[in-house]
UniProtKB/TrEMBL annotation:
One of its GO terms (molecular function) is oxidoreductase activity, acting on the CH-OH group of donors, NAD or NADP as acceptor. This is Aldo/keto reductase. Gene3D superfamilies: NADP-dependent oxidoreductase domain. It comes from Spirosoma telluris. Belongs to the aldo/keto reductase family. InterPro entries: AKR (IPR020471), Aldo/ket_reductase_CS (IPR018170), NAD(P)_OxRdtase_dom_sf (IPR036812), NADP_OxRdtase_dom (IPR023210). Coiled coil: none annotated. The keyword Transferase does not apply. The active site is at Y51 (proton donor). Substrate binds at H109.
Length: 272
């Protein structure tokens, strides 16, 4: 399986579908999950210092035998490590745990007010030194990005945020497109909380797909890089089996109305 990619604003190619590995209580299972995903054609792995499994990511890549250059690795600086000097140190620790000289994408995990600008300045330095092929942000909404862009020398290549029909805010996608920032969505499956939503179930049955596959396909059709998380082999396989159908414009529009602000993570609108 060859997964389509998107071109970031600096020319770097990023797969459209990958594996999220936010699994703090499942560290022992993460390496196996990544190995399975790589076997199935996945080439995007999204981790973070806060997940505590960067070493497992490194072990899985090594065990896979797939050339490093074929795999897109994202990690993130955690809130407690933000600030210029601390971010640089945190990045070095992530590189060491990942066993890498270069990551493909380095993100600010959350917009921490007192450190936003200094943290971004550190990411710009990392990028200028060629130690990250792209830099970006996570959980940043337009107000945070307006503030960042006012002082940034480099526009973020990616903005990763929670994205499902139930947390769908079209203005964020519009903002990212206007600024040429690639949107990336995490928690597309809402951790299964909406698996029995009658509206979703009816549409999934129409397409002969699972509710999870429908949610992933909806995200992809919005042009959003999508990173469902699972440590189960069958679920990982299912999550990547989404290329043989297309949701109609009418059904996409219907799913766009499912918003009820159901979230897995904090709402960035509450972070000033």
């Amino acid at each position: 399986m060859t997964i389509p990619s998107t071109t970031l604003n600096n020319g770097v190619e990023m797969p459209l579908l990958g594996l999220g590995v936010f699994a703090p209580s499942q560290a022992n299972e993460v390496q196996q999950a990544i190995e399975w995903a790589l076997e199935m054609g996945c080439r995007l792995i999204d981790t973070a210092a806060a997940y505590g499994n960067e070493r497992e990511v490194a072990n899985a890549i090594r065990a896979s035998g797939i050339p490093r250059s074929d795999i897109f690795i994202t990690t993130k600086v955690w809130n407690d490590d933000q600030g210029y000097t601390r971010t640089l140190r945190a990045f070095n620790r992530s590189l060491e745990r990942l066993g890498l000289d270069v990551v493909d994408l380095y993100l600010i995990h959350w917009p921490i007010k007192e450190h936003r600008h200094e943290t971004w300045r550190a990411l710009e330095k990392i990028y200028s030194e060629g130690r990250a092929r792209a830099i970006g942000v996570s959980n940043h909404y337009p107000a945070h990005l307006d503030e960042l862009l006012a002082e940034a020398h480099i526009t973020p290549a990616v903005n990763q945020f929670e994205f499902s029909p139930y947390s769908y805010l079209p203005e964020i996608l519009d903002y990212c497109r206007e600024k040429n920032i690639q949107p990336e969505g995490y928690a597309p499956l809402v951790r299964g909380e909406k698996n029995n939503d009658p509206k979703l179930v009816a549409l999934a049955e129409k397409y002969g797909k699972s509710t999870y596959q429908l949610l992933i396909r909806w995200s992809l059709q919005h042009g959003v890089v999508t990173i469902p998380k699972s440590v189960k082999r069958e679920r990982i396989q299912e999550n990547f089996d989404v290329w043989d159908f297309t949701i109609s414009d009418e059904d996409m529009a219907q799913m766009n109305t499912f918003y009820d602000n159901t979230r897995i993570a904090d709402d960035p609108r509450e972070i000033s």
